[in-house]
Amino acid sequence: MQINIVSRTENSQKFPLTINIPVDATVDQLKQAIYKVVPKYYPDRQRLTINQSVLQEGKLLKDYDIKEGDSISFKDLGPQISWRTVFLIEYFGPILVHPLVYYFKSQIYGEEFEHSKMQTIAYYMIMAHFIKREIETLFVHRFSHSTMPFFNVFKNSFHYHALSGINLAYWVYGPWNAAGKHGSEREEWLIWTCLGVFAWAQISNLYSHIILRNLRPPGTRVRRIPYGYGFNLVSCPNYLFETLAWLSVSILTKSFAAWLFLVVGSTQMFLWAVKKHKSYRKEFKDYPKNRTAMFPFIA
User: Fold this and answer.
1) Which of 41, 55, 207, 268 is the most exposed place for a label (fewest CB within 10 A)?
2) In this record, what's one Pfam family (predicted)?
3) Residue 229 lies in a domain
4) pTM summary value
């Protein structure tokens, strides 16, 4: 059958296009057909819609009641970059910044001093978090979308490179928190409690990511209802556990920079959780009604 592809950009020189495609073709096949005609627009760069519905990869055209001669709207999403690459770039910033600030303190602060126990433990906690995130990106995560717009990498990286990288490292490892300084020491019970909560939250976060990974077979975009540890209470326990991990860092360091990163990060994760929660409930009619989005019994 013939399908008309109409660009949302006025006066486009590449469109409209007429694509010949089998009646039982998938959205993926249609995107490949467009790509063959206009090589600039590889499949990940295309957004196709009909009657305000976005055509999802893996589905058949007939799922959208597309027939001979119908017109499909095309939007260029711009140059793309893989989600995996973006995550690796985001988390590499703090991994680079924190050792530089921690070990080259005399060059950065202009004086030599000894780090307090709090600073040392906070350093290893923060480094463990971001190294774990890099490992998860490489070996655990399976992404529902393979790419994002290239320029988003700068916006996404700012959150990590600036807030949890430069800003956090500078204020936590400074001479005002050095050994022997008033207010730099923490009671042993507080240190070990924060460290224990942090370790538990990180392990729980990893386990929730593994549960999500196992829901999606390799190379697919399959979505299923997650069950098990944490998921029986909330839709996004991974966000909850990450929030608790950073809460422990904030309590340990008593740094406004840590609290700022916690507030900004947890707010964003809560917004994502609400969106995913609504998506789950819309997609799955049997989705458990007792679950909340991110915080058990609250929201």
Assistant:
1) 268
2) Steroid_dh
3) yes
4) 0.88
